[in-house]
Amino acid sequence: MGHESHVWKIVFTACVLIAEMSPVVNLQSQFVNDSMLDGLVKRNRKASVQNFINNDLQLPLNKGKLKEIGNINSNGSDGEESPNNVECRAFHNMNITDICSFVNQTADCDIDEGFIRYTSFVYCDFAEHLLPLGLVIVFIWWVFLFIGLAVTADDFFCPALTVISKTLGLSVTFLAFGNGAPDIFSSIAAIGNASNGDAGLALGALLGAGVFVTTVVAGVIAIVRPFDAMQRPFLRDVIFYLAAVFWTFYILWKKEITKYESIGFILLYVFYVVVVVAGRYIYQKQRGLPTPPVTVVTNQTISDERRPLLNTEACKLTNYVQDTVSIEQEYIHPLARFFNSVNPIDHDKWVKAGCFVRFYEVFKCPVVFVLKLTIPVVDYEDEVNHNWSRHLNSLHCTVGPLFAIFATNLGWKTIGNVYPVWALVLPVGVILSLVVFFTSNNNQYPRYHAVFAYLGFLVSVIWIYCIANEVVNILQMFGIVFNISNAILGLTFLAWGNSIGDLIADTAMAKQGYPRMGISACFGGPLFNLLLGIGIPFTIGTFKNGGSYALNVTLEEIVLAGFLAFSLVSSLIIVPLSGFRMTRAWGIYLMVLYCVFLLVALLTETGVIHGHL
Hints:
By secondary structure, this protein is mostly helical. The chain has 22 helices and eight strands. It has helices at residues 12-21, 35-57, 60-69, 99-105, 118-124, 131-167, 181-193, 200-224, 231-254, 259-287, 299-303, 312-324, 334-342, 347-352, 355-374, 390-407, 421-438, 451-482, 486-511, 515-544, 555-577, 584-605, and strands at 73-75, 80-82, 227-228, 256-258, 414-415, 419-420, 548-550, 581-582. The strands form four sheets. It has a two-stranded antiparallel ribbon. The chain has a two-stranded antiparallel sheet with strand order 3-8. It has a two-stranded antiparallel ribbon with strand order 4-7. Helix 1 packs parallel to helix 20 (515-544). The radius of gyration is 26 Å and the shape is globular.
């Protein structure tokens, strides 16, 4: 596969790190400390609240609506009714004349984690007739963030993870489930931002992406290139996926998940990996193939079990090249090399690219530029100097840690109520930058170059988590504006955005003659996303909530789980009956099934199909 096929690669290690860091991550920036300005803002805010209460909430119609919802609390000593516990989307059913004030004073409209209050942005910074313009701007920003998420995962996180796995001597490297980047981080962000147990956005994205990949993506592969599937891997993946879906359905049905159940989702995936590795080991023993001491499970090895576990000849050749080949390089001025390193546009790709690709390169260059300034990349594919840049890597020692503390809202915190954290990190970073600069040279990477991969890993994880939070907040804003449930947003926008990379990559593999790789990814990838996308965030949530997490389940989530189970069961029946031949007829059936699923989901959202849980 080419460079673009790895756009969505992320691995379980990142999720574990997020689980460790999640309790301290609070991305709401508070940079204004001027007391006079703060007092003025508070006085204006109080006046706005009183005006909103007097002019809008005291209308008989709205007071009745609030009482129907049952979310009226006392507003302090004034004894006035407050909208603090009203759902943000409730203004659609109320005669509100000042939506901006409602949004600013309703707690449900605020964000728990993130930098921008998008609901306030569209309703307060734009006049009513300019609201569509605000929504278009936010949508373009949402697309930009999705691209930033993909670039961070592919160009910065994956190289760091490769270096870390090699330096630590990890025996098993699970790169195949790296496709779960958007799903896992978006799920963590969505569940972290969920209010009153409404995890519909996270569950909708996980289940919706599963339906999309197992029907649309798998169907496209079968239509593009019919083939014979490997029997045992196909049955194994579908059965494990079915077990995960039925377990999820059970959780939804009882509307609660405990810490043991959430941990069980993680352990089920660990068991799946053990089965995969053990099955391949037994298979090779039976075929009399040599088994090397190191096992590497990649996209190709999980997909094609007849390949050797490790390409030893390639490794020997790589080591030989690294140890014995000396390449003459033309002299490049250090500053010119620095500017080439931070250049966000690939010159070689630009020369060969068409108009669309060039537009894409220009569109993403701001985020690429910022990422290059903050995240060091150690790239072993660059056999000459492993992407070493003396000036840029020296700068990373200062810029990377500073970004990390400010992104996690630790920069302005004080040590002993006196010394701010940034004032400690800054001089330490400058000293490290000087040490790196004066102990290295421009043409050869230093011995400690691999250490930069650990810094790159940490900073890229923070970047991914920050971007995922913004993506989720924007989707929640669209749900408020258009009065769409989180489940529908999850199974459409978030699921499509997270799965478009799978569609492109797996279809490209099928066209190149590797349909088995693509079809295996259609089941192995969503299985990882579902098990860890539920296991990790809800493990964090259950421990925060005292051991259990109550779920606010709607009919949309039940429809999602039911259709996903139906598509898997039908594939489990049809494929074996057809002799494990992935035919075009099967692919067309899957495409039709997805269209029916979307129709039923929309009818459920609009209330045409209804029921009580």
